[in-house]
Amino acid sequence: MIIRIANAAKKKLYLLFWSVKSNLCLNKYSDLGICFMKKILFLFCFVIVLNTSAQDLPEVDDRLLFRFTQSQLDDLASVNSNQIKYLNFYLNNSHYFQDANFIPNQKLQDYQDIFQHLSLPPDYQLEEPINKDNFNILMFNVPFFENKSTAYLFGESNLLIVFRSKKVINEMFNENQY
Known about the structure:
Order of helices and strands: HHHEHEEH
Structural class: mainly alpha
Radius of gyration: 35 Å
Low-confidence stretches: 1-6, 13-26
Mean pLDDT: 80
Distance between the termini: 89 Å
């Protein structure tokens, strides 16, 4: 009888030990699983944060390099990325082209040619003639007025280039939430 009790006790101890060991193994593996999942979650969040912060840095339009050095633009982007966004917006939206056919010839003579205001460095060579598609406002020294648009003839073409006022450019920039 004592042997049976001892055998029963051994079986109970063995079952108890086995169940504790199994629980420990499960806990061990589940801890590894949790640890693994935590690492994956951390890496996932880290990648999202990097992506988000990378999206905050605006792309610099190459036309800005005509007036600014790359280091100036990098410094500007690191201090206030909104300024780069504004300059990019300015390059594309400070002006528009309009057909000059609707203006009488007498009045067309009153408009200056925009190419009279071309302001290139002495050693700068144009790769191709300036046209409507590759126009860079930073190559020209033209005044911008706070509340008044100005227009110029665009060379020998039948186009006018109209420069928006500073106020209109700022309103457009704010509306587009650049």
